[in-house]
Amino acid sequence: MSEVVLAPGDTLGILGGGQLGRMLAMAAARLGLGVRIYDPDPAAPAAQLASGHICAPWDDAEALERFARTVQVVTYEFENVPVAAVERLAALRPVRPGLRSLATGQDRLAEKTLFAELGLAVAPFAAVDGPDDLEAALGRIGVPAILKTRRMGYDGKGQARIAAPDGAAAAWAAVGRAPSILEGVVDFTAEVSVIAARGLEGAVVCYDPGENLHETGILRRTVVPAGLTPRLRTEAVLAAGRILTALDHVGVMGVEMFVTPKGLIINEIAPRVHNSGHWTELGCAVDQFEQHVRAVAGWPLGPATRHADVEMENLIGADVDRLPEILRDPTARLHLYGKAETRPGRKMGHVTRLRRG
Amino acid sequence: MSEVVLAPGDTLGILGGGQLGRMLAMAAARLGLGVRIYDPDPAAPAAQLASGHICAPWDDAEALERFARTVQVVTYEFENVPVAAVERLAALRPVRPGLRSLATGQDRLAEKTLFAELGLAVAPFAAVDGPDDLEAALGRIGVPAILKTRRMGYDGKGQARIAAPDGAAAAWAAVGRAPSILEGVVDFTAEVSVIAARGLEGAVVCYDPGENLHETGILRRTVVPAGLTPRLRTEAVLAAGRILTALDHVGVMGVEMFVTPKGLIINEIAPRVHNSGHWTELGCAVDQFEQHVRAVAGWPLGPATRHADVEMENLIGADVDRLPEILRDPTARLHLYGKAETRPGRKMGHVTRLRRG
User: Fold this and answer.
1) Phi then psi dihedrals of residue A123, to 5 deg
2) How far is CA B304 from CA A213, B107, B247, B287, B289, in A?
3) Is there a contact between B349 and A307 if contact means CB atoms under 8 Å apart?
4) What is the ipTM of this complex?
5) Taking the model in full, what pTM does it have?
6) Mutating which of B12, B22, B23, B30 best tests the A interface, going by the most A Cβ atoms within 10 A?
7) Parallel, antiparallel or unpaired: strands A180-184 and A125-128
8) What is the per-residue DSSP string for A11-49?
9) Which of A114, B136, B193, B339 is deepest in the core (most CB within 10 A)?
10) Is the pLDDT reported for residue A296 higher than 90?
């Protein structure tokens, strides 16, 4: 089953119907593939661009089976799809990327452990399952440190910074007393990410690293190319290639890294297309969405060559009120996600701009 | 009604659901707009990417009214939409481009007459409504000449070449004795087209002219930039601007021209997005599809700046059998139209490639 290769006219199943699923759906359409979305949300933005939407909970075995029967390959657009649902599907259809990528991407402890096993530089970390673990970990790692839930953290959620040893109890409460990981704070000069793809036969391509700028824990901008030395750029790409290969990953992955005076520190992975790769829409002939579809379809990967310098800006919440100004801006390429409701912190769209060198 | 401006969440109605409608639907989605397709074909490729498809004949007044009620603005993706249908819709909703562009684009005589009225160079032409007209026209224009039906001609259909005066009867039979136009054959060195857009407030932008290469009457390749002198390039763009302005056109238009030793000859217009503008997907931040949507939405036009040299190749009929090779080609960006059935002469997709300067 792992050898299934899609043909035009076949249907790709996508778990999750957010904006990433929506952009995947358009890329799949451009490659002549049909798309079916599985998402419990009746207003899933991707459903508008898909030929089918199964709207059911993640634990609905009958709906999952019905979904599997109408698609030839399954992929996912977010890493918090319940593993049990993917296990059910994997018994019926190839799921790409596989369960190992998904499980690792869901668990900060598993991903940090993988990086360490591969000999990649990581921040000091320790598993925290209770107040005693936290005390011990703080003793070893010191302050400042960040306590993060192992699961379901994204865009800065499920995190608490510990500035002094007496902050442990408050942090433990702030993360909801959930299984967590304590990480030493990294003194970094920049955050970069590598968008990498791996094909069914093991080939890996990497897009140029971009530099990410966050505000209140949410990605605000990605600038490409990142200001890396050739040596660090190579290091970043090689680290990404090793991670995808170690996981036998099939598809696109975002690998986030910190740049420090001592070199790169691998921070985390997202086993899917990634917000920091939206610049590829404008800067590359084959963008991350098409690349992911090619990979999970079992097709040869496309080139990851970058033909322009690009800056990507997220439109978050009320940023969409700037629409008239953005439409008048001759440097801006707009991409909206079709979300009816604007909420603070909600990603509503993005703008890409060519940077003049 | 002509002042209606769309807002994200509004719905654009598209008459015709072929590949051009499909690409318009994706562009509209990227701008946060919904799309509803009207097409009598239940397998219309655009329907897969739209949130609604009204599948009814062009003379179904009730269906047209139902369509109009669910959209805020109507546009079209092919110029052979019956004028009567558009007149019905125009009474209910803004139709952009308007009836004048549509009627002119449907009638070779009307378009040639417009070009001549604007003082633009055209091939010698004459209306032919019967054998006597044809004899008289041949006497004036001479041979070789081409007899073309005034209406419903595209991709070389409805045309007959007359090499000698005694070929008149056969040509008249070949075009089905339909109202026609006789055109003198132009001795040209190249065919170029200008993809131009005009906004609701009268601004015009033009993409760089591309050079078109045909095989058996069907566009095979477009190469951008065309090999024009700066003077001819300017002449081409100015001619396009004058035509769009004269028609009070709102939206994108393709203007085809011949390059001759004596200058440009305006050949024909398509009052819609155009096959020879597909290169803009890869070569411009805002492609022709997004540009058209911006124009008909009443939004400011985007830049038509070209940031790369591009070659576009149509995939026609059995060309899709080359898919494995195309997918392995690191220079090729593939775009398929989701058509289930391959037929000779049918446009199945296209490939764009960055050209290295």
Assistant:
1) -65, 150
2) 29, 28, 21, 8, 12
3) no
4) 0.93
5) 0.95
6) B30
7) antiparallel
8) EEEEE--SHHHHHHHHHHHHBT-EEEEE-S-TT-GGGGG
9) B193
10) yes
